[in-house]
Automatic annotation (TrEMBL), chain A:
This is Transport permease protein. The lineage of its organism: Bacteria, Pseudomonadati, Pseudomonadota, Alphaproteobacteria, Acetobacterales. It is a multi-pass membrane protein. The keyword Ribosomal protein does not apply. It comes from Asaia siamensis. Pfam families: ABC2_membrane (PF01061).
From TrEMBL, chain B:
GO terms for molecular function: ATP binding. Residues 13-244 form the ABC transporter domain. It comes from Asaia siamensis. PANTHER family: ABC TRANSPORTER ATP-BINDING PROTEIN, ABC TRANSPORTER ATP-BINDING PROTEIN NATA. This is Daunorubicin resistance protein DrrA family ABC transporter ATP-binding protein. The lineage of its organism: Bacteria, Pseudomonadati, Pseudomonadota, Alphaproteobacteria, Acetobacterales.
Length: 249, 260
C-alpha cells in the first residue's frame, strides 16, 4: 500500500509543481497579505505597544497560506469526479481509505512546501534563525494544520457537486476561519464573543502554536493546542472517509 | 444461472436478476445474462436503457439493489477487491490524468494493481508497443488527440493482464481512421491474448462486424440476447441495426438518460 500512497502523493506534488501559475499564486499570496496588512497595521500595532507586527503576522499568514492551499485542493477532487480520473482509482483493487489518505498527504505536502518556502524567506528578511527545537515545533504545528485542512478540503470535494460554486462556498467558509484564528490580530483583549468563536476554530490552535514556537509567547498552552489539532484532524479524517466512501461517479 | 454444473465452463461474467432503482424507478430491472471467455460481447440499448448503470454495477462502482454478479466465479458482493483484479475498464469519458504523461499514468495503474516495480518497465513497454504508442510515452495526456487518449486508456486497462475488459462506447467521437485502428487492436487482443471484451456502442455496423454475441436492453430489461447472426435472422431483418431498431422501437433514441 505504500506504493499506492506514494503514487497518489506524487501525483498531487507533481501536479502542483507543473502548474506554474498555481506555484506563483501560492507563493505570492502570503507576501501580498504580509505587505498589505503589514504596512497598514504595523504603525497602529506599534503605537498600541504590541511590538513588531510583521513578526506577529508572519506565522498567521503562513498558516493562512496552508489553509487556503489545502482547502482549495478539494476542487482537484471535484475536478477528478467530474472529469473522470476518480473512476480509475475507484475500480482499482485499492481501498478508498488508502486513496483518500494518499491524496490528503499529497495535498498536505504541497501546502507544507509553500509554508517552508514562505517561512524561509521571512526568516531571511528578519535576519534571525530560531533554535532547531523551536523550528521543529513550528513545522509540527504547520503540518497538523496542513493535514487537517487537506481532509477538510476532501470533505468539501466529496460532498459538493458544482465546480462553479465551489470557490464561492469555500470562500464563505474559510474567510471567517482565517480572520477568527488570531492570524491578523491578537486574541488577548478581544470581546468575549470573538474569543469564543476563535477558540472554537481549530486554526487558532495551529496559528498560536506556530507563533509561540518562534516567539516563546503562547496564548494557549502548546500541549493543549497539539491535542485539539490532533483530535480535530482525526475527526476531519473520519468525516472525510465517510464522505469519500459515498462518492458515486 | 451458470456456475452450478461442474461440467459447464465457468463464464467470465454471470449476471442473475440484477436490479437497480433511482428515485423509485427501476432503471435496471432483473437482468440475467452471461459472457463466455474470449468473446466480444456487445451490450446494446437506446439512451437511458440502463447500459451505463449496468456497467457501473459490473465494475463495482455501484452496488446493485438486487441480484448477483459473478466474475470468473467471484461474487462481486462478497469480494469486490479480488474481482477488480480480473477486469480492466475503459469508460466512456477519459479517465486519464490530463496533467501527467502517458508513462506516468501507466505507472500509477501498475501501483494500483500491485505489479512489482521490477516488471513495470517491461509491461509498460509491451502495452505501448501493442497500441503503437511507444513514441508518445513522454507526452502529456492533455496534448493527445481523442483517438490516442482512447488507445492509451485501453493500453492502461491491459497492464494488469485482465481476463476481461469493459469498453463503454470505445469509438465514440473518434474519426473513421481511429475507429478502424482501435478495432484492429481489439481484434488482435482477442486473437492473441484471449481477452474477453464487453462493450457498449451505438455504432451497430461495427458491432455486427466484430462482436460474436449481443444482448439488447430496453427500459432496464433484456429483450433479446445471443449470437449476432441469430438475432438478425430471428428478427428477419437485413442488418443488426434494423433488428435493434425494431426491438427497441418504443424507446426511440430520445429517451432521457438521467441515470443510465
Amino acid at each position: 500500500m505504500i506504493d499506492v500512497l506514494f503514487s497518489l502523493w506524487l501525483r498531487q506534488v507533481r501536479g502542483f509543481l507543473r502548474a506554474r501559475g498555481r506555484v506563483f499564486s501560492a507563493l505570492s499570496q502570503p507576501f501580498l497579505f504580509l505587505i498589505a496588512l503589514g504596512l497598514g497595521f504595523a504603525p497602529v500595532f506599534r503605537k498600541a505597544g504590541e511590538g513588531d507586527y510583521f513578526a506577529f503576522l508572519a506565522p498567521g499568514v503562513i498558516g493562512a497560506g496552508i489553509l487556503f492551499n489545502a482547502v482549495y485542493s478539494g476542487a482537484d477532487l471535484l475536478w477528478d469526479r467530474q472529469f473522470g480520473f476518480i473512476k480509475e482509482t475507484l475500480v482499482a483493487p485499492v481501498s478508498r481509505h488508502w486513496i483518500l489518505l494518499g491524496r490528503a498527504l499529497g495535498v498536505a505536502s504541497v501546502a507544507m512546501i509553500q509554508a517552508i518556502i514562505v517561512g524561509a524567506i521571512c526568516l531571511i528578511f528578519s535576519a534571525s534563525l530560531p533554535a532547531p527545537g523551536a523550528l521543529a515545533l513550528f513545522l509540527l504545528f504547520a503540518l497538523l494544520i496542513a493535514v487537517l485542512c487537506a481532509f477538510f478540503g476532501s470533505i468539501l470535494g466529496s460532498v459538493m457537486s458544482d465546480a462553479q460554486s465551489f470557490s464561492q462556498i469555500v470562500n464563505f467558509i474559510i474567510t471567517p476561519v482565517f480572520y477568527l484564528s488570531g492570524a491578523v490580530f491578537p486574541l488577548e483583549g478581544q470581546s468575549g464573543a470573538i474569543r469564543v468563536m476563535a477558540f472554537c476554530n481549530p486554526l487558532t490552535y495551529g496559528i498560536d502554536g506556530m507563533r509561540g514556537a518562534l516567539s516563546g509567547h503562547y496564548v494557549i498552552p502548546p500541549a493543549f493546542s497539539f491535542l485539539v489539532l490532533s483530535l480535530s484532524t482525526l475527526f476531519a479524517a473520519g468525516v472525510a472517509q465517510i464522505a469519500f466512501s459515498r462518492i458515486r461517479p | 444461472m451458470n456456475q452450478t454444473s461442474p461440467q459447464a465452463p465457468c463464464p467470465v461474467i454471470a449476471v442473475q436478476d440484477l436490479a437497480k432503482k433511482y428515485a423509485g424507478k427501476r432503471v435496471v430491472d432483473g437482468l440475467s445474462f452471461s459472457v463466455s471467455a474470449g468473446e466480444i460481447f456487445a451490450f446494446l440499448g437506446p439512451n437511458g436503457a440502463g447500459k451505463t448503470t449496468t456497467i457501473k454495477m459490473l465494475t463495482t462502482l455501484l452496488p446493485p439493489d438486487e441480484g448477483r454478479i459473478l466474475m470468473n466465479g467471484i461474487d462481486l458482493a462478497t469480494d469486490p477487491m479480488e474481482a477488480r483484479r480480473h477486469f480492466g475498464v475503459v469508460f466512456q469519458d477519459c479517465t486519464l490524468d490530463p496533467a501527467m504523461t502517458v508513462q506516468e499514468n501507466l505507472w500509477m495503474h501498475c501501483a494500483f494493481y500491485r505489479i512489482p516495480r521490477a516488471r513495470r518497465p517491461e509491461r509498460i513497454a509491451h502495452v505501448l508497443a501493442l497500441f503503437a504508442l511507444t513514441d508518445r510515452r513522454d507526452s502529456i495526456v492533455s496534448t493527445l488527440s481523442g483517438g490516442l487518449k482512447r488507445r492509451v486508456e485501453i493500453a492502461r486497462a491491459l497492464l494488469h493482464q485482465p481476463a476481461l475488459i469493459f469498453l463503454d462506447e470505445p469509438t465514440l467521437g473518434l474519426d473513421p481512421q481511429s475507429r478502424r485502428v482501435l478495432w484492429d487492436h481489439l481484434q488482435l487482443l482477442q486473437a492473441h491474448h484471449g481477452t474477453t471484451i464487453f462493450l457498449t456502442s451505438h455504432y451497430l455496423d461495427e458491432v455486427e462486424r466484430y462482436a460474436q454475441s449481443v444482448a439488447v436492453i430496453k427500459k432496464g430489461r433484456i429483450v433479446t440476447q445471443g449470437a449476432v447472426a441469430a438475432i438478425i435472422s430471428h428478427t428477419a431483418h437485413a442488418s443488426l441495426e434494423d433488428s435493434f431498431l425494431s426491438l427497441t422501437a418504443e424507446d426511440g433514441a430520445a429517451d432521457d438518460e438521467t441515470a443510465g
